[in-house]
Amino acid sequence: MIDLRQALRDCYTPTGRNLVDAGLIRSATLTPDTEAPGHNIPGVPPRHIARITLYAPGPANGTDDPANAQLLAQIENRLLGLEPISRVELTLLPPLFPIL
Q1: pLDDT of 13-41, one tens digit each?
Q2: What are phi and psi of 4, to 5 degrees?
Q3: In the CATH hierarchy, which top-level class contains the domain 4-93?
């Protein structure tokens, strides 16, 4: 099985720390993708949906912030490069420590 947290160590915040070491990952789960092409066909390897919930490293304005949008694209590209993953669903939470 895929270790999502290990794969997310290849994704970096704008400050240069990886997501896992920066403590931004709240949850990372895999669920079977029953809508993936080849599902239930003998010999076709199962595909999964990666669901990642993380805290925004930047401003609390979500995906409108270019740094947050770039980070989400980086995560999606990294995980879709893994053969067993067919889809990535990302949830961006407000920053843990917003700048006042």
Answers
A1: 888 899 999 999 999 999 999 999 888 89
A2: -60, -40
A3: alpha beta
